[in-house]
Protein backbone atom coordinates (compact mmCIF):
# COMPACT_ATOMS: atom_id res chain seq x y z
CA UNK A 1 0.00 0.00 0.00
CA UNK A 2 2.87 2.37 0.82
CA UNK A 3 4.30 1.89 -2.66
CA UNK A 4 0.94 2.70 -4.21
CA UNK A 5 0.59 5.87 -2.13
CA UNK A 6 4.11 7.01 -2.99
CA UNK A 7 3.18 7.15 -6.67
CA UNK A 8 1.39 10.42 -5.94
CA UNK A 9 3.16 13.79 -5.46
CA UNK A 10 2.46 14.56 -1.82
CA UNK A 11 3.40 17.99 -0.31
CA UNK A 12 6.69 17.82 1.61
CA UNK A 13 4.96 18.77 4.84
CA UNK A 14 2.43 15.98 4.45
CA UNK A 15 3.20 12.51 5.63
CA UNK A 16 0.84 9.91 4.25
CA UNK A 17 -0.76 7.56 6.71
CA UNK A 18 0.07 3.97 5.89
CA UNK A 19 -1.70 0.83 7.00
CA UNK A 20 0.88 0.35 9.74
CA UNK A 21 -0.30 3.60 11.36
CA UNK A 22 -3.97 2.73 11.35
CA UNK A 23 -5.47 1.15 14.45
CA UNK A 24 -7.00 -2.27 13.73
CA UNK A 25 -10.55 -2.33 15.06
CA UNK A 26 -11.53 -5.63 13.42
CA UNK A 27 -9.96 -8.57 11.67
CA UNK A 28 -10.59 -9.18 8.02
CA UNK A 29 -13.05 -12.07 7.65
CA UNK A 30 -12.10 -15.09 5.56
CA UNK A 31 -14.51 -15.79 2.74
CA UNK A 32 -15.01 -19.12 1.00
CA UNK A 33 -16.61 -19.68 -2.36
CA UNK A 34 -20.34 -20.32 -1.99
CA UNK A 35 -21.57 -23.81 -2.78
CA UNK A 36 -23.19 -24.09 -6.20
CA UNK A 37 -26.96 -23.68 -5.98
CA UNK A 38 -29.19 -26.64 -6.72
CA UNK A 39 -30.62 -26.75 -10.23
CA UNK A 40 -33.71 -24.62 -10.67
CA UNK A 41 -37.05 -26.08 -11.65
CA UNK A 42 -36.61 -24.65 -15.14
CA UNK A 43 -33.22 -26.33 -15.47
CA UNK A 44 -34.65 -29.68 -14.37
CA UNK A 45 -37.52 -29.41 -16.88
CA UNK A 46 -35.05 -28.51 -19.62
CA UNK A 47 -32.87 -31.48 -18.64
CA UNK A 48 -35.88 -33.82 -18.81
CA UNK A 49 -36.70 -32.52 -22.27
CA UNK A 50 -33.11 -33.00 -23.43
CA UNK A 51 -32.88 -36.57 -22.10
CA UNK A 52 -36.26 -37.46 -23.58
CA UNK A 53 -35.15 -36.14 -26.96
CA UNK A 54 -31.94 -38.14 -26.71
CA UNK A 55 -33.95 -41.32 -26.17
CA UNK A 56 -36.28 -40.54 -29.07
CA UNK A 57 -33.32 -40.10 -31.40
CA UNK A 58 -30.98 -42.88 -30.32
CA UNK A 59 -33.03 -45.37 -28.25
CA UNK A 60 -36.65 -45.20 -29.30
CA UNK A 61 -37.65 -48.48 -27.55
CA UNK A 62 -36.55 -47.05 -24.19
CA UNK A 63 -38.56 -43.90 -24.90
CA UNK A 64 -41.65 -46.00 -25.62
CA UNK A 65 -41.16 -48.09 -22.47
CA UNK A 66 -40.90 -45.00 -20.24
CA UNK A 67 -44.70 -45.18 -19.87
CA UNK A 68 -44.39 -48.38 -17.82
CA UNK A 69 -42.06 -46.86 -15.21
CA UNK A 70 -43.77 -45.40 -12.09
CA UNK A 71 -43.92 -41.57 -12.40
CA UNK A 72 -41.77 -41.05 -9.31
CA UNK A 73 -38.91 -43.01 -10.91
CA UNK A 74 -39.21 -41.61 -14.43
CA UNK A 75 -36.64 -38.81 -13.96
CA UNK A 76 -34.09 -41.41 -12.82
CA UNK A 77 -35.02 -43.65 -15.76
CA UNK A 78 -34.52 -40.81 -18.24
CA UNK A 79 -31.23 -39.76 -16.68
CA UNK A 80 -29.86 -43.32 -16.61
CA UNK A 81 -30.87 -44.09 -20.18
CA UNK A 82 -29.47 -40.79 -21.43
CA UNK A 83 -26.25 -41.51 -19.53
CA UNK A 84 -26.10 -44.90 -21.25
CA UNK A 85 -26.52 -43.29 -24.67
CA UNK A 86 -23.88 -40.66 -24.03
CA UNK A 87 -21.28 -43.17 -22.83
CA UNK A 88 -22.08 -45.87 -25.41
CA UNK A 89 -21.69 -43.50 -28.37
CA UNK A 90 -18.22 -42.36 -27.38
CA UNK A 91 -16.45 -45.31 -29.02
CA UNK A 92 -18.15 -44.50 -32.35
CA UNK A 93 -17.67 -40.73 -32.30
CA UNK A 94 -14.03 -40.19 -31.30
CA UNK A 95 -10.91 -40.45 -33.43
CA UNK A 96 -8.77 -42.37 -30.93
CA UNK A 97 -9.25 -44.34 -27.70
CA UNK A 98 -7.23 -41.67 -25.91
CA UNK A 99 -9.84 -39.04 -26.72
CA UNK A 100 -12.52 -41.53 -25.73
CA UNK A 101 -10.87 -42.10 -22.36
CA UNK A 102 -10.86 -38.35 -21.77
CA UNK A 103 -14.59 -38.17 -22.47
CA UNK A 104 -15.28 -41.07 -20.15
CA UNK A 105 -13.30 -39.28 -17.45
CA UNK A 106 -15.57 -36.30 -18.04
CA UNK A 107 -18.52 -38.56 -17.21
CA UNK A 108 -16.79 -39.94 -14.13
CA UNK A 109 -16.37 -36.39 -12.88
CA UNK A 110 -20.01 -35.61 -13.69
CA UNK A 111 -21.22 -38.64 -11.75
CA UNK A 112 -19.14 -37.67 -8.72
CA UNK A 113 -20.49 -34.13 -8.80
CA UNK A 114 -24.08 -35.31 -9.28
CA UNK A 115 -23.84 -37.57 -6.25
CA UNK A 116 -22.35 -34.73 -4.20
CA UNK A 117 -25.33 -32.52 -5.07
CA UNK A 118 -23.31 -30.06 -7.18
CA UNK A 119 -23.89 -31.19 -10.78
CA UNK A 120 -22.30 -29.31 -13.67
CA UNK A 121 -24.53 -27.37 -16.03
CA UNK A 122 -25.03 -30.42 -18.20
CA UNK A 123 -28.55 -31.88 -18.73
CA UNK A 124 -27.91 -35.54 -17.89
CA UNK A 125 -26.00 -34.63 -14.73
CA UNK A 126 -28.66 -32.12 -13.65
CA UNK A 127 -31.44 -34.69 -14.04
CA UNK A 128 -29.42 -37.42 -12.33
CA UNK A 129 -28.71 -35.16 -9.35
CA UNK A 130 -32.39 -34.20 -9.19
CA UNK A 131 -33.41 -37.88 -9.24
CA UNK A 132 -30.97 -38.69 -6.44
CA UNK A 133 -32.29 -35.84 -4.29
CA UNK A 134 -35.88 -36.87 -5.00
CA UNK A 135 -35.19 -40.49 -4.03
CA UNK A 136 -33.62 -39.30 -0.79
CA UNK A 137 -36.66 -37.13 -0.05
CA UNK A 138 -39.19 -39.85 -0.94
CA UNK A 139 -37.56 -42.46 1.28
CA UNK A 140 -36.25 -40.31 4.10
CA UNK A 141 -32.70 -41.22 3.16
CA UNK A 142 -33.27 -44.97 3.51
CA UNK A 143 -32.80 -45.76 -0.21
CA UNK A 144 -29.81 -44.88 -2.34
CA UNK A 145 -28.57 -45.41 -5.87
CA UNK A 146 -25.13 -47.00 -6.19
CA UNK A 147 -22.51 -44.65 -7.61
CA UNK A 148 -20.19 -47.64 -8.04
CA UNK A 149 -22.62 -49.15 -10.54
CA UNK A 150 -22.48 -46.06 -12.74
CA UNK A 151 -18.69 -46.21 -12.52
CA UNK A 152 -18.89 -49.88 -13.51
CA UNK A 153 -20.74 -48.94 -16.69
CA UNK A 154 -18.08 -46.36 -17.55
CA UNK A 155 -15.30 -48.85 -16.83
CA UNK A 156 -16.85 -51.48 -19.08
CA UNK A 157 -17.28 -48.97 -21.90
CA UNK A 158 -13.62 -48.04 -21.52
CA UNK A 159 -12.52 -51.65 -22.15
CA UNK A 160 -13.99 -51.57 -25.65
CA UNK A 161 -13.25 -48.02 -26.77
CA UNK A 162 -11.48 -49.31 -29.88
CA UNK A 163 -14.45 -51.55 -30.82
CA UNK A 164 -12.28 -54.63 -30.41
CA UNK A 165 -14.01 -58.03 -30.69
CA UNK A 166 -15.01 -59.80 -27.50
CA UNK A 167 -12.61 -62.65 -26.67
CA UNK A 168 -15.40 -65.11 -25.83
CA UNK A 169 -19.17 -65.33 -25.73
CA UNK A 170 -18.88 -65.29 -21.93
CA UNK A 171 -17.03 -61.96 -22.07
CA UNK A 172 -19.88 -60.57 -24.17
CA UNK A 173 -22.28 -61.78 -21.48
CA UNK A 174 -20.18 -60.01 -18.87
CA UNK A 175 -20.35 -56.85 -20.95
CA UNK A 176 -24.14 -57.11 -20.91
CA UNK A 177 -24.11 -57.65 -17.14
CA UNK A 178 -21.84 -54.67 -16.47
CA UNK A 179 -23.81 -52.30 -18.69
CA UNK A 180 -27.46 -53.11 -19.39
CA UNK A 181 -28.11 -55.32 -16.35
CA UNK A 182 -26.50 -52.65 -14.20
CA UNK A 183 -28.81 -50.01 -15.72
CA UNK A 184 -31.75 -52.15 -14.65
CA UNK A 185 -30.36 -52.55 -11.12
CA UNK A 186 -30.06 -48.76 -10.85
CA UNK A 187 -33.61 -48.30 -12.11
CA UNK A 188 -34.86 -50.78 -9.52
CA UNK A 189 -33.06 -48.79 -6.83
CA UNK A 190 -34.88 -45.67 -8.03
CA UNK A 191 -38.33 -47.26 -7.42
CA UNK A 192 -37.00 -48.04 -4.72
CA UNK A 193 -36.72 -51.82 -4.84
CA UNK A 194 -34.14 -54.00 -3.11
CA UNK A 195 -35.07 -57.56 -4.01
CA UNK A 196 -32.88 -60.53 -4.84
CA UNK A 197 -35.63 -61.92 -7.10
CA UNK A 198 -36.09 -58.65 -9.02
CA UNK A 199 -32.34 -58.21 -9.44
CA UNK A 200 -32.01 -61.83 -10.57
CA UNK A 201 -34.60 -61.38 -13.31
CA UNK A 202 -33.07 -58.03 -14.27
CA UNK A 203 -29.66 -59.68 -14.63
CA UNK A 204 -30.92 -62.10 -17.28
CA UNK A 205 -32.94 -59.43 -19.08
CA UNK A 206 -29.97 -57.06 -19.14
CA UNK A 207 -27.63 -59.71 -20.52
CA UNK A 208 -30.10 -60.42 -23.31
CA UNK A 209 -30.43 -56.70 -24.08
CA UNK A 210 -26.65 -56.18 -24.03
CA UNK A 211 -25.89 -59.10 -26.33
CA UNK A 212 -28.63 -57.99 -28.71
CA UNK A 213 -27.34 -54.41 -28.71
CA UNK A 214 -23.97 -55.66 -29.96
CA UNK A 215 -25.67 -57.64 -32.74
CA UNK A 216 -27.78 -54.65 -33.75
CA UNK A 217 -24.72 -52.43 -33.91
CA UNK A 218 -22.56 -54.90 -35.82
CA UNK A 219 -23.29 -53.48 -39.33
CA UNK A 220 -22.65 -49.90 -38.22
CA UNK A 221 -19.39 -50.79 -36.48
CA UNK A 222 -18.21 -52.89 -39.43
CA UNK A 223 -19.14 -50.18 -41.95
CA UNK A 224 -19.01 -46.86 -40.09
CA UNK A 225 -20.23 -43.72 -41.85
CA UNK A 226 -17.54 -41.50 -43.37
CA UNK A 227 -15.91 -39.14 -40.87
CA UNK A 228 -16.76 -35.46 -40.80
CA UNK A 229 -13.51 -33.87 -41.94
CA UNK A 230 -14.68 -30.48 -40.68
CA UNK A 231 -15.04 -31.80 -37.15
CA UNK A 232 -12.51 -31.55 -34.37
CA UNK A 233 -12.94 -35.28 -33.84
CA UNK A 234 -11.52 -36.10 -37.28
CA UNK A 235 -8.25 -38.04 -37.03
CA UNK A 236 -5.16 -36.01 -37.76
CA UNK A 237 -2.55 -37.96 -39.63
CA UNK A 238 -2.60 -41.57 -40.70
CA UNK A 239 -2.39 -43.42 -37.41
CA UNK A 240 -3.00 -47.16 -37.45
CA UNK A 241 -5.89 -46.81 -35.01
CA UNK A 242 -7.53 -44.15 -37.17
CA UNK A 243 -7.17 -46.37 -40.25
CA UNK A 244 -8.66 -49.32 -38.38
CA UNK A 245 -11.54 -47.16 -37.19
CA UNK A 246 -12.26 -45.89 -40.71
CA UNK A 247 -12.22 -49.47 -42.03
CA UNK A 248 -14.53 -50.72 -39.29
CA UNK A 249 -14.27 -53.81 -37.13
CA UNK A 250 -16.21 -56.97 -36.35
CA UNK A 251 -17.32 -57.21 -32.73
CA UNK A 252 -18.50 -60.82 -32.68
CA UNK A 253 -16.85 -63.02 -30.01
CA UNK A 254 -13.64 -64.54 -31.30
CA UNK A 255 -14.45 -68.04 -30.06
CA UNK A 256 -17.76 -67.99 -31.94
CA UNK A 257 -16.02 -66.75 -35.09
CA UNK A 258 -13.48 -69.57 -34.79
CA UNK A 259 -16.20 -72.21 -34.39
CA UNK A 260 -18.20 -70.94 -37.37
CA UNK A 261 -15.25 -70.16 -39.64
CA UNK A 262 -15.88 -66.42 -39.85
CA UNK A 263 -12.95 -64.17 -40.75
CA UNK A 264 -13.24 -60.48 -40.03
CA UNK A 265 -11.61 -59.54 -43.36
CA UNK A 266 -14.35 -61.49 -45.16
CA UNK A 267 -17.05 -59.61 -43.26
CA UNK A 268 -15.43 -56.26 -44.03
CA UNK A 269 -15.15 -57.19 -47.71
CA UNK A 270 -18.38 -59.15 -48.33
CA UNK A 271 -20.72 -57.97 -45.61
CA UNK A 272 -23.74 -60.24 -45.22
CA UNK A 273 -22.32 -62.73 -47.73
CA UNK A 274 -19.29 -63.57 -45.58
CA UNK A 275 -18.96 -67.31 -45.05
CA UNK A 276 -20.24 -68.51 -41.69
CA UNK A 277 -21.53 -65.10 -40.60
CA UNK A 278 -25.15 -66.16 -40.22
CA UNK A 279 -24.09 -69.18 -38.18
CA UNK A 280 -22.10 -66.92 -35.87
CA UNK A 281 -24.99 -64.48 -35.51
CA UNK A 282 -27.30 -67.43 -34.80
CA UNK A 283 -25.07 -68.67 -31.97
CA UNK A 284 -24.82 -65.24 -30.35
CA UNK A 285 -28.55 -64.55 -30.77
CA UNK A 286 -29.33 -67.93 -29.22
CA UNK A 287 -27.43 -66.95 -26.08
CA UNK A 288 -29.48 -63.75 -25.82
CA UNK A 289 -32.68 -65.73 -26.34
CA UNK A 290 -31.63 -68.21 -23.64
CA UNK A 291 -31.45 -65.38 -21.11
CA UNK A 292 -34.95 -64.21 -22.07
CA UNK A 293 -36.25 -67.76 -21.73
CA UNK A 294 -34.63 -68.04 -18.29
CA UNK A 295 -36.15 -64.75 -17.14
CA UNK A 296 -39.55 -65.79 -18.49
CA UNK A 297 -39.39 -69.11 -16.63
CA UNK A 298 -38.47 -67.30 -13.43
CA UNK A 299 -41.57 -65.12 -13.79
CA UNK A 300 -43.73 -68.20 -14.28
CA UNK A 301 -42.26 -69.78 -11.16
CA UNK A 302 -42.83 -66.65 -9.09
CA UNK A 303 -46.47 -66.30 -10.14
CA UNK A 304 -47.02 -70.01 -9.58
CA UNK A 305 -45.79 -69.62 -6.01
CA UNK A 306 -42.70 -71.71 -6.69
CA UNK A 307 -39.02 -71.04 -6.07
CA UNK A 308 -36.84 -69.75 -8.86
CA UNK A 309 -34.84 -72.61 -10.26
CA UNK A 310 -31.30 -71.33 -9.60
CA UNK A 311 -29.36 -69.03 -7.29
CA UNK A 312 -28.44 -65.45 -8.16
CA UNK A 313 -24.74 -65.62 -9.01
CA UNK A 314 -24.05 -62.02 -7.92
CA UNK A 315 -25.70 -62.28 -4.50
CA UNK A 316 -23.37 -60.79 -1.88
CA UNK A 317 -21.41 -58.62 -4.29
CA UNK A 318 -21.30 -54.83 -3.94
CA UNK A 319 -24.81 -53.44 -4.30
CA UNK A 320 -26.38 -56.89 -3.98
CA UNK A 321 -26.67 -57.17 -0.21
CA UNK A 322 -30.23 -58.22 0.58
CA UNK A 323 -29.97 -58.44 4.36
CA UNK A 324 -30.70 -62.11 4.64
CA UNK A 325 -33.33 -62.34 1.90
CA UNK A 326 -33.89 -65.83 0.57
CA UNK A 327 -36.21 -67.37 -1.98
CA UNK A 328 -37.72 -69.71 0.62
CA UNK A 329 -39.81 -69.47 3.77
CA UNK A 330 -43.41 -68.77 4.86
CA UNK A 331 -44.99 -65.90 2.97
CA UNK A 332 -42.02 -65.60 0.65
CA UNK A 333 -44.02 -66.54 -2.45
CA UNK A 334 -46.48 -63.71 -1.88
CA UNK A 335 -43.68 -61.27 -1.17
CA UNK A 336 -41.88 -62.26 -4.37
CA UNK A 337 -45.04 -61.75 -6.41
CA UNK A 338 -45.55 -58.29 -4.93
CA UNK A 339 -41.93 -57.37 -5.63
CA UNK A 340 -42.11 -58.57 -9.23
CA UNK A 341 -45.40 -56.72 -9.75
CA UNK A 342 -43.80 -53.46 -8.61
CA UNK A 343 -40.64 -54.06 -10.62
CA UNK A 344 -42.19 -55.36 -13.83
CA UNK A 345 -41.94 -52.07 -15.70
CA UNK A 346 -38.17 -52.23 -15.30
CA UNK A 347 -38.12 -55.62 -17.08
CA UNK A 348 -39.91 -54.27 -20.16
CA UNK A 349 -36.77 -54.00 -22.36
CA UNK A 350 -37.20 -57.77 -22.67
CA UNK A 351 -40.23 -57.10 -24.89
CA UNK A 352 -38.32 -54.94 -27.38
CA UNK A 353 -35.39 -57.36 -27.37
CA UNK A 354 -37.65 -60.35 -27.97
CA UNK A 355 -39.33 -58.63 -30.93
CA UNK A 356 -35.97 -57.84 -32.51
CA UNK A 357 -34.68 -61.39 -32.06
CA UNK A 358 -37.88 -62.78 -33.58
CA UNK A 359 -37.44 -60.52 -36.59
CA UNK A 360 -33.79 -61.57 -36.91
CA UNK A 361 -34.87 -65.22 -36.98
CA UNK A 362 -37.46 -64.53 -39.69
CA UNK A 363 -34.73 -62.88 -41.76
CA UNK A 364 -32.56 -66.01 -41.46
CA UNK A 365 -30.09 -64.25 -39.13
CA UNK A 366 -28.97 -61.78 -41.78
CA UNK A 367 -27.97 -59.00 -39.39
CA UNK A 368 -27.34 -56.59 -42.29
CA UNK A 369 -31.00 -56.44 -43.36
CA UNK A 370 -32.37 -52.91 -43.34
CA UNK A 371 -35.62 -54.04 -41.69
CA UNK A 372 -33.71 -54.66 -38.46
CA UNK A 373 -32.88 -50.96 -38.12
CA UNK A 374 -36.45 -49.72 -38.44
CA UNK A 375 -38.67 -48.89 -35.50
CA UNK A 376 -41.04 -51.70 -34.64
CA UNK A 377 -44.60 -50.36 -34.80
CA UNK A 378 -45.80 -53.37 -32.79
CA UNK A 379 -43.76 -52.50 -29.71
CA UNK A 380 -46.33 -50.24 -27.96
CA UNK A 381 -49.06 -52.87 -28.29
CA UNK A 382 -46.84 -55.81 -27.38
CA UNK A 383 -45.50 -53.87 -24.40
CA UNK A 384 -48.99 -52.95 -23.21
CA UNK A 385 -50.21 -56.55 -23.23
CA UNK A 386 -46.98 -57.86 -21.71
CA UNK A 387 -47.26 -55.40 -18.84
CA UNK A 388 -50.92 -56.17 -18.33
CA UNK A 389 -50.33 -59.93 -18.25
CA UNK A 390 -47.05 -59.62 -16.33
CA UNK A 391 -45.33 -61.83 -18.87
CA UNK A 392 -43.02 -61.10 -21.81
Automatic annotation (TrEMBL):
Entry keyword Cell membrane: no
Keyword Mitochondrion: yes
One GO process term, biological-process aspect: mitochondrial respiratory chain complex I assembly
Bias (Polar residues): 325-336
Source taxon at top rank: Eukaryota
GO CC term, one of those recorded: mitochondrial inner membrane
UniProt-annotated stretches for the region Disordered: 225-245, 317-336
Keywords, sorted A to Z: Membrane, Mitochondrion, Mitochondrion inner membrane, Transit peptide
Chief localization: mitochondrion
Pfam families per record: SQS_PSY
Compartments reported by the entry: Mitochondrion inner membrane
UniProt record similarity statement: Belongs to the NDUFAF6 family.
Protein name as annotated: Squalene/phytoene synthase
